[in-house]
Design a protein that fits this description.
2 domains, about 45% helix, two-stranded antiparallel ribbon, 6 strands, two-stranded parallel sheet
Length: about 230
């Protein structure tokens, strides 16, 4: 992306010629709306550095038009990114520029705690399963599987015996639950849904086997099955 992609640029207009089309940052500043930029460290450094003044709530100069945009009340910039620990698990990430990073307040965000995540999964599974006790039991097992995988993820610096190059996120947990609910009448539907949501994605075969062993161990063979993983 370039600065024009978030501020604005000239585009062909319906009546012919070119007209300036403001983009998200322009509108957020002008209208006083908070803006969140995901995967912020995918920006090239010349783009993120060009936002230094904006991060200090100073006016934005639109070079294309000469317009100066004042940051209206209500405008704030938020950003999020996955940090690559040097293992190449998050591709194309830029190391933080020190001058740009200095203008942020920082917060480390991790996964929801087990109780919160279980409630999220229960909300997805609930409509497809009439027995609330079973819903709670299965949701807890799914969250336990996710947390066991996370403890062995090589990006988890708190784990001294890391061995996996994949991690099971809350997003994947929700997808797993959705697919299990959609295939509620299929044999071993939680195994089938897990394969579609996570297990069949590209990963080292040793990782696939390790994750499968975790899932089978926590679910049990009767509920999860023992058939070989489809690759």
């Amino acid at each position: 992306m370039t600065k024009d992609d978030i501020v604005g640029a000239y585009h062909p207009s319906e009546g012919g010629g070119l007209s300036y089309k403001p983009r998200s940052l322009y509108r957020a500043m002008a209208e006083g709306i908070p803006i969140f930029i995901d995967e912020y460290n995918n920006f090239a450094h010349d783009v993120s550095t060009s936002l230094n003044e904006v991060l200090e709530r100073r006016p934005l100069l639109v070079e294309s038009t000469g317009e100066v945009i004042q940051p209206h009340a209500g405008f704030y910039m938020f950003a999020g990114f996955n940090h690559d620990t040097g293992l190449g698990l998050y591709s194309a990430r830029q190391a933080p520029d020190l001058s740009n990073a200095d203008r942020f307040m920082w917060r480390h965000v991790t996964y929801p705690d087990a109780t919160e995540e279980q409630q999220i999964v229960e909300q997805v599974l609930g409509p497809a399963m009439t027995d609330k006790a079973t819903v709670s039991k299965v949701a807890k097992i799914m969250v336990d599987v996710a947390n066991h995988v996370r403890k062995q993820f090589v990006g988890d610096e708190s784990n001294g015996a890391a061995s996996l190059e994949v991690v099971l996120t809350t997003r994947t947990l929700v997808k797993w639950a959705e697919l299990a609910a959609m295939n509620a009448n299929a044999p071993h539907n939680f195994r089938y849904a897990f394969e579609l949501a996570f297990l069949n994605r590209p990963m080292p075969e040793s990782n696939r086997e390790a994750v499968l062993n975790i899932a089978v161990g926590l679910f049990g063979e009767q509920l999860f099955g023992t058939a070989p993983v489809k690759t």
